[in-house]
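User: My collaborator and I are trying to settle a disagreement about how two of our proteins should look. Neither of us wants to argue from intuition anymore, so we agreed to look at predicted structures for both before our next call. Could you fold the first one, then the second, and keep them clearly separated?

Assistant: That sounds like a sensible way to settle it. I'll keep them separate. The first protein:
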Amino acid sequence: MNHNGHKTVVVRLPRVSERTTLLVLKKQRFRCQNCGKTLLAQTPLIQKQHQISENTLHAIDLALTEDRTMSSIATQYNVSTNTVCRRLTLLGKEIQPAYNGLPRQLCIDEFRSTGNQMSFIAIDAKTHDIVTILPGRKNADIKRFFRNHYSNKNRRNVKAIVMDFNSQYESAIRTLFPNAKLVADNFHLVQMTLRSLNQTRVQLMKQFKPDTREYRLLKFYWRFYLKSYDSLESTEVWWFSHLKDRQTQEQLVQEGLGLSEQFMHTYFSAHQLVKTFQDRDYTGFLEVLGRVENVSPQLMTTVKTFIHRKRLIKNMTHGTLSNGPIEGINRKIKQLKRTAYGYKNWEHFIYRIRIEFLIKVEKKNPIRK
C-alpha cells in the first residue's frame, strides 16, 4: 500500500455554542501496488460514504423521544427532514413489540389518528404499557390481529377488559377473550351522567330571555351545577358580577334549582349516581335507580343505558380498574398530532408513538461543578 493523496470530506457535527459546526476531514487515500485499486481510511466518527457524523445521528434519535416537529429537529442539527424521517423509521423498526403474551387485564379505547379515521388501542391495565395500536377499529381487523399474533391460550388468560359503553367491540371481545369479564369505566359513567345534567340545564336556560336574571343564573355559573350539593360553599359570600349580587355558592344553586322542579330532581338524582360510581357502590347504585323519578328525558335515557349495562357496572364495583391510564395515553397522542399539525403517514405516526412511550430517557439534573 502506498499513500495516494487524500479526499476532503465536510462532516456535519452537533452544534457548539448554538452555532452550526462543520468538520473538514481529510481522509488518507491508499493505492495497492499489485492491483492498482484505491481505498480510503475510515474513522468511527462517521460511516463510510456519509457526511453526517454518528454523534449527530444519535442526537437526532434522542430528539425524536421529545414532543417536537421533525422540521425543528432537522433545523437544529443541520440536516434535511428526510434524514430525520429515515432515523424515525430505523428507530421505529428496532422497537417492534414482541407479541410473547397478553396481560391478565386490558384497557381498550379508540382515538382519531391519521386523516379522519378512528384507531383501536389496547394497553396493560396494571403497567400501562401499550399492547397494540391498530390503524382501524373494525371488529374484523381486531379479530384478525389477535388471532394472528396471540395463541388461544394467551387470549384465555385475559380475565378483565375495561371499556366504555361502545357496543361495537362487545361481540369481538367476547369471541377473542372468552374468560374475560367486561368492566365499565367509571370515568365514562360519571361523564355520561353529568353530560345529561348539563344538557338539562341548557334546555331550561333557553326558555328564558338572555337579558333576564334566570338566564344569566344558568348561563354563566354552569360549573356550580356540576358540583355536588355537599361540596358547595355555604358560608363564604361571593360577588357574582353577572347577577350584580352577593351570595354563597349554595344560595346560587338553590335559586337555579328553584326555576324548575324537574331540574331539581335531575340535579340530585344525577349527583347521587355520580357518588355511587365514585365510591364503586353497586348496592347504592341500585337504590338510586329505584328512586329516580320526575327527571329530564336526557337523564332518563342515560339511566336506561345504565340499567341495560348493569352487569358491566357491577364488575366495575368489584375492583379498582378504570380507563384513566388509556385516556392519559390518548391525550399524549393527541398532543403529538397537535405538535406536528397532523400526520398523513400511518407508519411515521405509529413509530413516533412507540418511540414516545417505549424509549425512556433518564432525566439528569444540571451539572453545577
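The second protein, kept apart from the first:
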Amino acid sequence: MNLTEIRKWETSRNCQGPKQTQENQSLNFTIMSYNVLAQGYIETMPYLYYNCNEENLKWPDRKKRLFNQFKMSNADIVCLQEVEADYYYNTYLSYFQSQGYDGVFKQKTQGKIDGCATFFKKCKFSLKEDHSLECLKNGIDLLNRDNIALISILTPFKNPDKQICIVNTHLLYNRKREDVRLAQLQILLAEINRVACKNTNYFPVILCGDLNLTPSSKLYSFLSQGRLKYEHLDIKKLTGYGSKKIGKIFLPKELYISDSCQYLQELEQKNCIEEAIFSSGTLTHKFAFKSVYNSDKFPKVRLNSTCHNLVDYILYSNIDEKLNKHEKQELILLERLRLPTYKDCLKIGPLPNSQNGSDHYYLEARFRWNCE
C-alpha cells in the first residue's frame, strides 16, 4: 500500500474548509507535529523493532525518508520530538536553515540524548520569545522525570503586532503513571498561561507533541473540557477503581501553581487572587483545547511496531473567543492531513519501514489566522 495515496488533505466536522478571505486580513499556514524516533533508542532497545527490516532502522536510511517527508510536507511550522541533540546541530538545523527556516531546541534533562525542536519559515514568521519548561523539580516525586516543553511566541510579518503561541512537548511514556502526566500537564498549562497572556489578552495557542495519552483518557478530557475532579481517582492510573485515592492534595503548594493551573504570582499581578485556590480536589484551566483529529471517534493509528494508538496531537485554543463570545475567532482549522486507519496500518506493516522514517506518523494541519 502506498502511504502517499492515503495521506491526503481532508476536512472534517472540526474543519471549516479552505474558504477564501481578503489577503490583507488573514494568514494561512500549515503546522506539522512529528515524533521522529531517536536513533539511540533503536540501538538501545532493538527488541521493540524485532519485526522491522534492519536496513530500515539504520540512520542513513531513516534520515533520507524523514527528510523526504519534511520536503514533501513543506510545513510553515514544524514541531519535532525525539530529536537527538547531536543530530539537531549537525543535521536537522542545517537542513531546515537551507530550506528557509529558523529553529529552537530544548534537550531533555537527566542526561537524555533527545529533546524537542521547533522550526518556522522565516518568510512568514519571526521569533519574538522562546521559553523552555523542565518537568524535573527537585524533591517532588510526581515531577522527577526528564520530560520538557518548548514554547515559542511567533509573530507574522503580515502584522508584527500579533502573536501566536506554539507549544512543543513530549510527556512521560509510562502507561501506569497517569498521575505523573497530569502533574506535567498542570505545570505546562501554568507556563502556557504565563507566556500566552499579555495585559489580560490571550494569544491563540497551538499545542503539539507526543502526549502519550489516548483520546479516551481522563487527561484528554481535562485538556478538552478544562476540568478534572481528581480527589477520588486512583493515585497512579487516575481511574475510579483503585483502593488508594489521590485526595485533595496533588502538587505541593510550595510550587505556587494553583488548581486553576496558574502561577500565584501571575494571579496576584492580574488582581485575580480569587482564582488562587490550592488542594481543592479539582483542576481547571482556561484553554478548552480542540483537537485537529476527532479524538475518540478517529480510527486508531500505528504508534510503533507493536501498538496501535493515537498518542500524538495538534490541539488549538482560541481563549478570547471562550471568554468573550463577541470576540472574532482568530484561529480557524481549515484542513488536516488524513491519518491511516487501523486496516491501513496492518497493510503498511511495522514502522519504521521503507515508506515511513519513524515509528510514528506525522500530523499536519492547515489553519487560517485572522491576524489583522
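Some points you might bring to the call about the second protein. The first helix runs from residue 3 to 6. The longest strand covers residues 144-156.
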